[in-house]
Amino acid sequence: MQDSSNNLIIKSLPPSTDRLPLFIVGDVHGCARELVELIETAKKHIPKFQLMLVGDLFTKGPDPVGVFEVIQEYSALCIKGNHDWALWSTIQQAQKRSFHSLAEHTKQTLHLIRYHKRAIFDLLCSLPHAFVTTVVSQLKRSEWETEYPLIVVHAGLDATKGLLGTTERMLLTARYVRWDAKGNEKKLIVVPAGYRSEILNQSISAFAQKSATSLEKERFRWHELHNGPALIVFGHDAKQGLFRKTLPSGRPICVGIDTGCTYGNSLTGYFPEVDLAIQVRSQRKYFDIKKNVILLKPHHSRLAVV
Q1: Where would I find the Calcineurin-like phosphoesterase domain in this sequence (predicted)?
Q2: What does pTM read for this prediction?
Q3: Shortest CA distance to 262 belongs to which of 67, 1, 49, 42?
Q4: What is the pLDDT of residues 221-274, one digit of tens each?
Q5: How many secondary structure helices (H) and strands (E) does the chain include?
C-alpha cells in the first residue's frame, strides 16, 4: 500500500431522502451464513434497504463464494479493506509468486474461490476506499441536527486532514495512530499491528522498559481526534468490538462495527438513518489466529494448487 492520497477512490451517494436507507455491515471475512441471517434479521426492522459492506469480504472465513453471491444478489456496495487489497495483490501477482510461499489462510481462500477467481478479482479492482453521503435522521431528537455528513471507511481516517487528506494506508489499516514530529511538520502516522509486541519484546533493561512505556503511551485510537460533525462508520477493529462515540447531544459521530464474526463472536450491521445496530452470533469459530488458518469442515480441508 502506498502512503499517498493521490489514488484514492471515494464515491458519493445521494442523501437519505433520495435513496433507500443504508444497512452497513462490518467485516464479513467469508462468513456467508451469518451475513444472510443478519440481512434477514435487518429486514424485520426496515424491509427495504441498500446493503453496504465495509470491507475484508472474502478472506479468513469458510465461504467467500457465498459472500460474493450475496453481494451480487443485493447489488451491495462494498469498500476496500486491507485483506481485499492483499487478495487483489496476490491474484494479480499469481504468475510471479509461488503458491507454496503464501500464508496458509491465503492458500485456503484461493482454493475456495478457484472457480470464481476472475469475477472476484474484477470486483476487488472496482472497490472504492470510502463512501460519503448525507444522513437525514428518521429519529426525532430535539438536540440533533436534521441532517449530517456520513463517511464510511474500512479502518480509519486522519481527523486533522479530513478524508481527502488521509493516506490509503490509514484508510485500510488504522487502528492506533501516533504523532510523528520528525521534520518540520507534525503529522499522524499509523501504528503497525505488531507495534506493541515489538516494543514489549525488547530486552528487559531499565532503558528498554522506560522506552516501551513511553512509546506505549504515545499511541491512541484514530477516532479520539474526531469530534464531528460527520458520522464515521468503520470496521477493522475487532478487538475494540461494537463502538459508539457521540456528541454531548447523544448524536453519534463514530460507530465501529467489526465484531469478529470469523473469530467466533458476532456479525454486526448498522442503520445510520435510525442509529440502530443489529447483531447475529457466529455459528462457530472459523479462524485460528495462532495457527493462521481457516478452520474448514472436513470436506473443505484438502487444498489444490491454483
Answers
A1: 21-238
A2: 0.89
A3: 67
A4: 999 999 999 999 999 999 999 999 999 999 999 999 999 999 999 999 999 999
A5: 8, 16
